[in-house]
Design goal:
Blueprint lengths: L1 H37 L4 H37 L11 H6 L1
Length: about 100
Amino acid sequence: MDLALAYMGAGIGFGLTVIGAGIGIGRLAAAIAEGVARQPSATAQITGAANLPLFLLEGVAILAEVFGLLIVLLKYAQTSPVCTFGRVMTRKDARNG
C-alpha cells in the first residue's frame, strides 16, 4: 500500500510538472510570437532574450522529474527485501549476512 501511494504521488507529480512546463513554455512562445509580429526587425534580439528563460524552464522540469524518480526508487529500495540500496545496515544485519 505504501509503495502504491509513492507511485501514485510520483505519477501526479510528473503530470503536474509536465502540465506546468507546457503552460510556461506555451505562454513564453506566444509572447515571443507576438513580439516578433509587432516588431519584425527585432527578431534576433527577441529570440536571443527568450532562450535563457526557455532553457531554465526546461531545466526545472527535468530536475523535478529526476527528483520524483529518485523518490520512487528510494521508496522501492526501502520496501524491497532484495535491494539494500538506501537502507543502513546495522551490526546485527552485517553479522547475519
